[in-house]
Design a protein that fits this description.
- With 194 residues, this protein is mainly β.
- The chain has a single domain, classed as Electron Transport, Fmn-binding Protein, Chain A (Pnp Oxidase, Chain A, Roll), CATH 2.30.110.10.
- Helices cover 12% and strands 38% of the residues.
- It has a seven-stranded antiparallel beta sheet with strand order 3-2-6-9-10-5-4.
- β4 and β5 form a beta hairpin.
- The chain binds flavin mononucleotide.
- Flavin mononucleotide binds next to β3, β5, α1 and α2.
Length: 194
């Protein structure tokens, strides 16, 4: 194997291929959205996840103010709109959702809406916030509701229809989708069924 050195500013891309979520936030009557891929599950009991959000984002401000956010998981059909939502800040426009052509719809549990036309949804309430380096805050949140489109997900992503495959982020302007399910037999009987 012929190794190459990866610039440390891009080291995180070696972990790339994370799900891209549209993070919707709400403060008073204003809703904002941004794509995020620095998101990871951290607990099953209770279901919890962590998301790293830049302190420069309006999303950061709204999460701090409201203590909640929703994640909507888009498929490839929303690629252009997802990317556009990551190229401008809600600080610089009146209504970013309208600007990029995304529509908010009521979720199940929280006042913060989810984004229409996505494949899966998580509604989250913030438990803790930790400084992460100079620029980001790691918000640790409990998942209070989760639901998905039947043709996209049963207990895992189905990966049958192209348009029902969740979008992943490789880094920069590059995205991907998962190609297929691969079963590792025998199924683990000890340890956690992650
Ligand atoms: C695919 C993609 C993934 C991104 N992931 C993150 C992320 O995990 N955390 C973050 O702070 N910004 C992330 N960004 C950048 C924000 O989406 C971007 O700064 C956005 O304009 C912030 O919008 P806001 O100021 O309206 O909240 C990502 C951008 C793209 C395109």
């Amino acid at each position: 194997m012929d190794k190459r050195i990866v610039e440390l500013q891009f080291a995180h891309r070696l972990l790339g291929g994370n799900a891209v979520a549209l993070v919707a936030t709400r403060y008073r009557d204003r809703v904002n959205v941004m794509p995020a891929s620095w998101i990871t599950p951290i607990s099953m009991k209770p279901p919890m996840l962590a998301i790293a959000v830049s302190k420069n984002c309006l999303t950061h401000d709204y999460i701090e103010r409201s203590g909640e956010f929703t994640l909507s998981l888009p498929g490839i059909g929303l690629l252009e709109k997802v990317h556009a939502a990551g190229m401008i800040s809600g600080y610089d426009c009146d209504d970013k959702l309208e600007e990029v052509g995304l529509r908010p719809v009521a979720g199940e549990a929280l006042d913060t809406p989810v984004i229409e036309g996505c494949l899966g949804y998580l509604e989250c309430t913030v438990e803790e916030a930790y400084e992460a380096g100079e620029e980001h805050t790691l918000f640790v949140a409990t998942v209070v509701a989760a639901y998905a489109e039947r043709e996209a997900f049963d207990d895992t992503w189905l990966l049958t229809e192209e348009e029902a495959k969740p979008l992943r982020h490789l880094g920069g302007h590059l995205y991907s989708v998962l190609s297929q399910r691969i079963s590792a037999e025998p199924k683990a009987t000890d340890g956690q069924d992650l």
